[in-house]
Amino acid sequence: MTDRRTNATGEPNQEDEEVRRGQEERLRTVWAAPRSWRYWSAVNNTEVGVWYTAAAFGFMLFAGVLALMMRVQLAVPENDFLSATFYNQVYTLHGTAMMFLFAVPIFEAVAIILLPQMLGARDLPFPRLSAFGFWCFVIGGVFVCGSIFFGAAPNAGWFMYPPLTTNEQYTPGYGPDIWLLGLSFIEVASIAAAVELIVGTLKCRPPGMRLNLMPLYGWYVLVVAGMILFAFPPLIAGDILFELERMFDWPFFDPSRGGDPLLWQHLFWIFGHPEVYIVFLPAVALVAMIVPTFAQRPILGYSWIVLAAVGTGFISFGLWVHHMYTTGLPSISLGFFSAASEAVAIPTGVQIFVFLATLLTGRVIYSVPMLFVSGALAIFVIGGLTGVMVALVPFDWQAHDTYFVVGHLHCVLIGGMLFPLAAGIYYYWPIVGGRRLSDKLGRVAFWLMFAGFNLAFLPMHYSGLAGMARRVWTYSEELGVGMANFASSIGAFVFAAGFLVIVWDVLRPRGKEAHARRNPWNAGTLEWLTEMPGESWGVRSVPIVTTRYPLWEQPNFIDDVDKGRFYLPDAEEMKRETIITSVLDGEPLQCLRVPGPSFMPMIAAVLTGAVFIFATFHWWAATFAAMGLSVASIIVWLWRGTAEIPEKAEKNVGLGLKLPLYKSGPHSIGWWAMFITMTGDAMAFIGLIFGYYYFFTIHADFPPPAAVGPGVFWPGVALAMFALAWGAALFGGISNRAERIGTSRALMAAGTLTSLAGSAALLWGPYVTGLDPTAHVYPATVWVLAIWTAVHGGVGGLMLGYCLGRSFAGRLTPAHDVDISNVTLYWHFMGGTALLTVTTLALFPILT
Amino acid sequence: MTATRLALSTTFALSACQGSQTAFDPAGVEAERVLTLFWIMLAGGGAIWAVVVGLGFYATRVAPEQHSEKAGLRLIIWGGCGFTTIVLAALLFWGLKMMPELRRPADGPTVAVSGEQFWWRVAYGVEGDPGVVRNLPMGGVPSANEIRIPLGQRTEILLSSPDVIHSFWVPQLAGKMDAIPGRVNRLILEPTEAGVFNGACAEFCGTAHAQMGFRVVVVSESEFEAYVQAQAEPAAVVDSAGLDLFLQNGCAACHSVRGTPADGDVGPDLTHLASRRTIAAGLLPTTEENIAAFIASPDHLKPGVEMPAFGMLPNEQIAQIAAWLGSLE
């Protein structure tokens, strides 16, 4: 018995307008942002992405004001507009805020807005994680930036070279601590975003979108998020060593006790150079979306540009020493890194030529976004060419640490990132605001920015070679760079005026201005399915995608999506849902229930932030209290919001397809998130291990004879305990799945206890052998590795305890075992960590 | 003879603070070669820029219509891949080939230079150890903020620091090299002209980083020998009120004046202060007025400087100290 509301297979009849209206009503209700003060509990990408972007631009404007203050100070020789001490805070905070609070977060922010739209997904897989990242970012950013109003800002440059920064004698006050702890906290947010975006691109593509059909933006997101995952953790490792030295006098960078200031430079630039590409590639990604639209043809050389992006990502990890050409390293290393630094220009060149070739073979329509793309090309190529110059060792010996480098890096960052971003703002604003920005204001903004930029930054190349070192708060008249600096200062203000025109264009009251028409640029990719103004559900139904530009290449596509003729056209159970597909082929695997609004991410971020902020001021009791509360809040969040057992095993998502609502193991997004997070975690651990072997290479007596400590016995006991816990996690999961609940619970309990015992034994080794971490770099290195692994053992124990609790609460059952399966994965990493730690600490001293 | 020397020294005194610091006017082998390299790279880079931007302008503005895909793909392969690879390989080859040449061992004297917050400690007549060393040999003839080197020889500068990282840079002579605590780095200076060349600290090292300059004075070999010998002598001390005040007010806690009881080791050696062109690390010409002004209020002239102010002393006492220091040739 069928009526007109259902079709032959019993599914709703999408051709019936009334059916559709009902579906739309439900979707709208389910995906609506909460109202009034609860608005701030929103977690959906459309809200969090916009907040994130706005906050990043806020920090950018703040850092821009700092830049203008510097330009006023340097406009004429021997000026006294700013004092030396204040200038040093201003330039440090300018660099820090632009890099950590704008350039990297803006990538995450824009990707959170655009990625789900481009993939035809309703949201990213972990919206609450995005929200957590956003709140961490805002709290950390305000903390770091706010310090300047108390004259307590960091004041030694954004790369913070020790021993200037590690020693209270040279940098009294809280400046370096604020930098380290505030930014470590933000790095956590960045890694959270990276996890979210990698799982998003790999698992949330629409059915049919094989990896080689993914929009180029998706590829770039994947590459950049992967780079964050490998680049940020070494910096976190560096931060740990740095803060231990600064707070507790552990001498990692103090040469008088065996440390070495260069270790920091290695760890910082292993992060810092990929960072440049982490900033640059997302902007190229925007260009890769804009160019085909205005050429009105698909990108020419899709595989070339994908390979080039991946290649750039890889090579960028082999360049870091080109920031250290003047540190006296052997010529042979300099030669190697010089070659790698030149090599990275090849994939960069390929990307530029792919755009040129696409424009050449298309029928180009010129508009404001293209204007900014052209400006970006003109400026970025200058930066690229001066980059090729400074990659050459002998030239860098002259140019290094001068205004030549300041000019170069601003060409790369502003030409390579800010201009494409401005193009992106003009291109994508209709998706966010429902209206187009003004063409006229756009052109005014462009020409002000373009002229201002060149006037400000081209003369700096001259100033640098004329003898002006960077980071100087004043310069003498006789240096002969007064005119060049005056021009730079004028240019900076013109550039700022241009940017303010964009800000005005975005914020100006619109009155009754009409909405843009749908797909206003006649683009070919999924994000332009967005209605004007946009609906909170994102996409009316999740489409089947078989081409790279479905709006151009799949007939009747928009109408099919709008009429709900694809998947998930309804929200029958009033739950937020999206489709999870397989990594390579985009085959539908699961209908994922996505969590909705919650204050828990914000609360967890506030408490985690408190840990870092209290630690900055050495309020240890408060720090430990906040630590306990933040762990508790995360447990509450996970307990109530994750791995929920659905009311039924599977559901019909449309077109006769039934998908499970619950998945565990390698097909689940949680497993992937754990895998990716632990990869990042392992990278940080490798950063610390690198430190140990670095000291081995520079000292003949490192490690000292095995008798010094931590000995073999206690580390051995620890390893045995961790191995037992590892086994308990593995067999706990297996016996749970085999419905031997009792055995499984016993194993989880045993695993909890043995891992805690293992952590204690690992710490007992250096303690009982009397290793004093302040005496020399060897005991300090031993302690830091032992503590890292012991903390991970503690967390692993806590996780097994959590699974035990979930089992008793009926939230972990033989059929619904996400928790224990992810914890087992954690333990695989933990097992490796323990093995490497104990081998290094206990066996290596015997072997050498 | 004396007249010429007098005339010479006046010229030097006048040009003391007008020495130049620009890499565009090289006076050393390394600086010359790097400048040539720069001009060639600039010309080549300018041409590449014009072609790439011109291509973009052509594709979007001049001839926005469609061109063949085959031509487009060829552009990617030959322009993006082929051309860049060839040009970069050639450039790299040239750049790497320069290095062993520039880093050849020295054949002249060795000078130890220690970057300290915020001045340069100098020692002549030290022995460089070819192996890896962690500390500078500072036993030789001490001086500060002015380095004399002989023309026609390759002088080795040994660099380190007891506090934070500094970087030693004389743009007219050569590129820069860092002075890093716990390491000794080497830099070769091979001047091609005599003259005074300004140097600066290039690595941010604290509040007064911008005012941590120095002078390199290139002289003939014989003048260099004579200079080091003169510097090795103790000060020609005349009993003066200035010396007494210098000792009474604790200046000797930080400064040495060899030949007097002043043997402090924290700040610059002042034994031959008046023979140096500048005071306060390249900041001001060495005149009695400048010395007096600096003693009275060093932080005003050089914010962040480690030396405490002695403005509480009566002006005439400061003037007496300055007059005495100004006589230490």
UniProtKB/TrEMBL annotation, chain A:
Domain Cytochrome oxidase subunit I profile positions: 25-558
PROSITE patterns (UniProt xref): COX1, COX1_CUB
Its EC number(s): 7.1.1.9
Spans annotated as Disordered: 1-21
UniProt pathway: Energy metabolism; oxidative phosphorylation
Principal location listed in the UniProt entry: membrane
GO molecular function: cytochrome-c oxidase activity; heme binding; metal ion binding
Keyword Nucleotide-binding: no
InterPro entries: Cyt_c_oxase-like_su1_dom (IPR023616), Cyt_c_oxase-like_su1_sf (IPR036927), Cyt_C_Oxase_1 (IPR000883), Cyt_c_Oxase_su1_BS (IPR023615), Cyt_c_oxidase_su1_bac (IPR014241), Cyt_c_oxidase_su3-like_sf (IPR035973), Cyt_c_oxidase_su3_a-hlx (IPR013833)
Biological process annotations from GO: electron transport coupled proton transport; oxidative phosphorylation; respiratory electron transport chain
GO cellular component: plasma membrane
Membrane-topology annotation of the record: Multi-pass membrane protein
Transmembrane segments: 48-70, 90-114, 134-158, 178-199, 219-242, 276-295, 302-322, 334-359, 371-395, 407-429, 441-462, 482-507, 598-615, 621-639, 669-693, 713-734, 746-768, 780-804, 825-847
Reaction equation(s) it catalyzes: 4 Fe(II)-[cytochrome c] + O2 + 8 H(+)(in) = 4 Fe(III)-[cytochrome c] + 2 H2O + 4 H(+)(out)
Protein localization: Cell membrane
Keywords, alphabetical: Cell membrane, Copper, Electron transport, Heme, Iron, Membrane, Metal-binding, Respiratory chain, Translocase, Transmembrane, Transmembrane helix, Transport
Family membership: Belongs to the heme-copper respiratory oxidase family.
Protein name: cytochrome-c oxidase
From TrEMBL, chain B:
CDD domains reported in the protein's UniProt record: CuRO_CcO_Caa3_II
InterPro entries from the UniProt entry: CcO_II, CcO_II-like_C, Copper_CuA, Cupredoxin, CuRO_CcO_Caa3_II, Cyt_c-like_dom, Cyt_c-like_dom_sf
Residue span(s) of domain Cytochrome c: 237-329
Organism from which the protein derives: Tranquillimonas alkanivorans
Cross-referenced Gene3D superfamilies: Cupredoxins - blue copper proteins (2.60.40.420)
Highest taxon in the source lineage: Bacteria
One Gene Ontology term of the molecular function aspect: heme binding
Cell compartment(s), UniProt: Membrane
Family per similarity comment: Belongs to the cytochrome c oxidase subunit 2 family.
PANTHER family linked: CYTOCHROME C OXIDASE SUBUNIT 2 (PTHR22888:SF9), CYTOCHROME C OXIDASE, SUBUNIT II (PTHR22888)
Protein name: Cytochrome c oxidase subunit 2
GO CC terms: membrane
Segments forming domain Cytochrome oxidase subunit II copper A binding: 106-230
Pfam families assigned: COX2, Cytochrom_C
